[in-house]
Structures are given as structure tokens and as C-alpha cells.
TrEMBL record:
UniProt name for this protein: Dipeptide epimerase
Endpoints of the signal sequence: none
Family in the record: Belongs to the mandelate racemase/muconate lactonizing enzyme family.
An example Gene Ontology molecular-function term: metal ion binding
Active site (catalytic residues): K150, K246
Cofactor descriptive note: Binds 1 Mg(2+) ion per subunit.
Binding site for Mg(2+): D175, E201, D224
Length: 327
């Protein structure tokens, strides 16, 4: 039976402004891939990320290069060999997962190896801002068990102290988004340890990982921009304690599962993260994150509106996707 691929660019407003060390955004731009086979359709969402040289146009072009393979029946393994990692392959891979689940009547969770997926606790992200405004964000979310705090510039010590004081019962992940340097790394890690921070994410630019070798890490350090696929892991051993797996970096759930398994085998802790996107983009990651050490799948919570049907959130708990959404 012939397949037909359709692709749509969608924009969802963010509630306020989302700011990290590299800049701000007020909307989430996503690409939705739909693969139809007879009366059955599977969907996948991806988010182009400029940090990796991706734009809406470049990802649409990459998807078009895979169109003939998709419509001629390529499977997920073949797709992984035919396309590089990145957002385009993620959208197509997740659409294939959804198509397989709906065509077979077998939940994607079964194929992932999760027989009974359960709700998981996600971090909630606080945007980079002044210490006073970040403290206000933290107070408004102080009941959440896990906060991810965007930092990465002058004044980080004041920001960190302000957030910890405003949300004393929350565990804290600090995400510098490559915003620290070799000159302030040790001091910042020592402060994080003093304040009981649970994890520090990507403190240095990805091309300066080696500065971490042999350095005391009083707080576990997690790679994000430095890790995309399983082949990246060998060089990161001894530099990082954890890795942040994102479907858009890995190029889909298929590759993300391989990355997770290899990371576990090498002794890394696992974070499953996301871009700012809708519930459709989070849904496959919820299955990936069932046994993760840290989960950061709050993308829909940052939006002014989500797509429908959506994932169910109860506070910081995110529930597994229903088949009507994905899988």
C-alpha cells in the first residue's frame, strides 16, 4: 500500500518569553510530519535548532530529500542509515513509530520495551533573567520538586543564590548552555555544591570539553550540546557524569534508544530533555524517559497553548501519551 508524506510548519506562542544564554524567543516553531498508509496515519514533530545550523527551511529541505524513501516504504532502520541525525530525521522517525503502532494495534510502548508506562516527574524551566526576576519565577513554582534554571553569564552566583533561597525545597538543575568558561568553572561548581544543586548542564562550549578532564566535579556535570548520538559517547567518558538525550539531536526515538542504552553501559546518568515544542514532540520522549535519572519534558508547560489532544500534566507529573496523540 502506497505511503504519502505531508509536512506542515506550525507556530505556537510561548507564555511570555523563553530566554537562555544565547537569546530569547516568544514562539515555538515546529514541523509536523504525517505519513499516511491507507486509512492509517502516523505523526511526528520536530524542532529546528539554530545552535546546530538548522532553520525551518533547511529542515524542510532535508525532509524533502527523504520523501521518496519514506513513500517507497523505508523502515526506521533504513531511515537511520539514509539520513543524518537532526530534526528532520526525528520528525520522520517518530511518524514511522506512530504509523507502526496504529497499523499494528500494538502500542509504541511495547515496541520500546515499556509494558506499562507510568507518569514521570519533569523539571520545570526558569528563563534566564535578573536575580530578582528569577527569584520571582522560583517562588511561583516553589512547589515543584525539580526546577531547571537557565544561567550562563555575569551575575550567575546571584541568580543561583536567589533561586535556591526562593525555592528551598526544590531540587535544582543549572543549565549554563555553554555560557561558562575555564576561568569561572571551578568557582561556579563549588558554589553549586555549596547550595545543594543536583546537576550542572553543559557549563562550557562544546569544543572545550577537555577542560573538564581531571577536574574535580563536586556536582555531577551533564553533556547537552556536546552529545548527539551514541558515537559521541566514547570521547566524553571521564569528562561528564551524565548526558542529555533529545530526540531532535539524536534524530529520532530509534537513535535515542541506542544512545540511552550505550550511555548506560558506559556508566553515564541519563537526562531526557526537549526543545520548546508541543505535546506531540514530547510524547515519544516520555516513553524514552521512563527510567531516566532526570527528566526535562516541560515544553508544553511553557506554551500559551498546546495542540489537542495533548499530554496530561498534573503539576510536574507528565502522563504517558494516549494513542489519539501518538503511539
Amino acid at each position: 500500500m502506497a505511503r504519502v508524506l505531508s509536512v506542515e510548519v506550525e507556530r505556537f506562542p510561548i507564555a511570555g518569553t523563553f530566554t537562555i544564554s544565547r537569546g530569547s524567543k516568544t514562539e515555538a516553531e515546529v514541523i509536523c510530519c504525517t505519513i499516511r498508509e491507507g486509512d492509517v496515519a502516523g505523526r511526528g514533530e520536530c524542532v529546528p535548532y539554530r545552535r546546530y545550523g538548522e532553520t525551518i527551511d533547511s529542515v524542510l529541505s532535508a525532509i524533502e530529500t527523504g520523501r521518496s524513501a519514506i513513500e517507497n516504504g523505508i523502515d526506521r532502520k533504513g531511515l537511520a542509515a539514509a539520513m543524518p541525525a537532526g530534526a528532520a530525521r526525528n520528525g520522520l522517525d517518530c511518524a514511522l513509530w506512530d504509523l507502526e503502532a496504529k497499523a499494528s494495534g500494538r502500542p509504541a510502548a511495547d515496541a520500546v520495551g515499556v509494558s506499562a508506562p507510568h507518569p514521570i516527574t519533569t523539571a520545570y524551566t526558569l528563563s534566564l533573567d535578573t536575580p530578582e526576576r528569577m527569584a520571582a519565577q522560583a517562588r511561583a513554582n516553589a512547589a515543584r520538586p525539580l526546577l531547571k534554571v537557565k544561567i550562563g553569564g555575569r551575575g550567575d552566583a546571584e541568580r543561583i543564590r536567589a533561586v535556591v533561597e526562593a525555592a528551598p525545597k526544590s531540587r535544582i538543575i543549572l543549565d549554563a548552555n555553554e555560557g561558562w568558561n575555564e576561568g569561572n568553572l571551578a568557582e561556579n561548581l563549588a558554589l553549586a555544591a555549596e547550595l545543594g544543586v543536583a546537576l550542572v548542564e553543559q557549563p562550557l562550549p562544546a569544543d572545550r570539553d577537555e577542560a573538564l578532564r581531571g577536574m574535580a566535579r563536586p556536582v555531577p556535570v551533564c553533556a547537552d550540546e556536546s552529545v548527539h548520538v551514541a558515537e559521541d559517547l566514547e570521547r566524553l567518558a571521564g569528562l561528564y557524569d551524565a548526558v542529555n538525550i533529545k530526540l531532535d539531536k539524536a534524530g529520532g526515538l530509534t537513535a535515542a534508544l541506542a544512545l540511552r542504552d550505550r550511555a548506560r553501559a558506559l556508566g553515564f546518568r541519563i537526562m531526557v530533555g526537549c526543545m520548546v515544542g508541543t505535546s506531540l514532540g514530547m510524547a515519544p520522549a516520555v516513553l524514552l524517559a521512563q527510567d531516566a535519572d532526570f527528566v526535562d519534558l516541560d515544553g508544553p508547560l511553557l506554551l500559551a497553548r498546546d495542540r489537542q489532544p495533548a499530554l496530561a500534566y498534573a503539576g510536574s507529573l507528565v502522563f504517558p501519551p494516549t494513542p489519539a496523540l501518538w503511539g
